[in-house]
Write a structure and sequence with these properties.
Elements (H helix, E strand, L loop, with lengths): L10 E11 L6 E12 L8 E12 L16 E12 L2 H5 L6 E15 L15 E18 L9 E18 L2 E15 L5 E12 L3 E13 L3 E3 L2 E15 L7 E2 L15 E2 L1 E12 L3 E2 L2 E15 L9 E13 L8 E7 L10 E6 L26
Antiparallel strand pairs: 1-2, 2-3, 3-4, 4-5, 5-6, 6-7, 7-8, 8-9, 9-10, 10-12, 11-12, 12-15, 13-14, 15-17, 16-17, 17-18, 18-19, 19-20
Length: 388
């Protein structure tokens, strides 16, 4: 991997792996060789951004003792994907006080298979169909920063971004012999209130067109990070988030899942799927005025719930899943490790192949926001939070 190749701001990497997760169940049995290059928009005053990916993939059954060849998904595939974008009037804006930006981008990508698993054949499949796409997007964005503390740090100054990002995308998408136009819109708004509350609002909508709307969907939601509340020697923040997602006329789109930030956080099963999802998350954190060997502590409690409607069922058949958790965050400024979080979660409802109890350890915790001004044109993803 080489960062900022020859002073061009291009980050490039080449790699070869024999233990890459396969496309079916993510076991480490894919051989892959790849080349990736990306030029991010590291500043709102830069003129161009783009990226390129070239990859060759081939699976190899390394779990023959537990899975015979008759159950194995054998495939060989290739990927070519590139995009380029231009920051409109960036030079003129450099000399002005205007902070709003406009960015236009185009993308072409193709994934094709020399060998497809026998279990898939010529059927519609999320992972093993030949795909070809040509997309264009236009983005309006602005980002500023607000200085505060006691978000994930312990009194140190933290830069909280606020502003907006609106991207409209359109183009053409081909999967097997299914050719369809596509259009989508993605909008995010980050706000710092006069009372120092941090709020995020977001909206997603997208659809293919084939004798009407097809594989359509929308998502709406928001989050609230409260101002710092002080009581005696303690400091406290509340965090609340909620989202609603609905899919229509599903043909090739991936169903909604729970194992992502828009569902049940830290849930570890992809088996629960549906066409409609309602989720909410509440967390309370207390910053203690106490040190032990230079470490400061902030215990927290959390409750997360998600209601999901199975694909072929009515809303009355929806299933409620929840998670109850607690933990502690700690930080030592002398070690430079960032904020570390230890969390334990209990899921009351039993789910096949999913543990009822989970413990996680996370390092370098930060306030979640979109750390990219722009990204490549893409279709809307309903199970991925791109705010990292």
């Amino acid at each position: 991997r080489k960062v900022n190749v020859a002073g061009t701001f291009i980050d490039a990497q080449v790699g070869y792996s024999v233990i890459y997760p396969n496309r079916y169940d993510e076991k480490e049995e894919e051989n892959v060789v790849y080349l990736q290059a990306e030029k991010p928009l590291v500043s709102p005053y830069m003129r161009t951004a783009g990226g390129l990916t070239l990859a060759h993939r081939q699976s190899e059954n390394r779990y023959t003792r537990v899975r015979p060849d008759s159950q194995y998904y054998n495939y060989t595939g290739h990927t070519i994907d590139g995009w380029v974008g231009y920051n409109i009037a960036s030079r003129k804006l450099l000399a002005s006080q205007v902070r709003d930006r406009r960015f236009a981008a185009i993308r072409y990508g193709q994934t094709y298979f020399d060998e497809v698993p026998l279990q898939v054949g010529s059927a519609i499949d999320l992972f093993f169909n030949d795909v070809q796409l040509a997309l264009a997007s236009f983005t309006f964005f602005r980002q500023d920063f607000y200085k505060t503390n006691y978000v994930y740090g312990f009194g140190v100054t933290e830069d909280i971004p606020y502003g907006y990002n609106i991207t409209a995308t359109g183009g053409w998408y081909r999967q097997l012999q299914l050719n369809r136009p596509y259009a989508g819109i993605k909008a995010d708004r980050y706000v710092v209130s006069s009372r120092q509350d941090f709020m995020r609002y977001f909206f997603r909508a997208g659809s293919y067109f084939n004798h009407g709307l097809e594989d359509a969907g929308f998502m709406i939601g928001g989050s609230w990070f409260s101002r710092l509340w002080k009581w005696k020697r303690y400091k406290m923040r509340q965090y609340i988030s909620a989202s609603y997602t609905k899919l229509f006329d599903m043909v090739t789109s991936e169903p909604l899942r729970l194992d992502n930030p828009f569902g049940l956080q830290y849930f570890n099963s992809p088996l629960i799927i549906g066409k409609q999802r309602i989720s909410a998350n509440l967390e309370s954190t207390v910053f203690l005025n106490y040190k032990f060997l230079g470490f400061r502590f902030a215990p927290f409690v959390n409750f997360n719930a998600s209601l999901i409607t199975p694909v072929a069922q009515h809303f009355s058949k929806s299933e409620l899943h929840s998670g109850i958790g607690a933990g502690v965050r700690t930080r030592n400024e002398n070690l430079g490790l960032g904020t570390i979080g230890l969390r334990a979660i209990y899921f009351p409802r039993k789910v096949e192949a999913a543990p009822s109890f989970r413990v996680t350890l996370t390092t370098d915790l930060k306030y979640r926001y979109s750390n990219k001004y722009v990204s490549q044109p893409d279709i809307i993803r309903w199970n991925i939070d791109d705010t990292q």
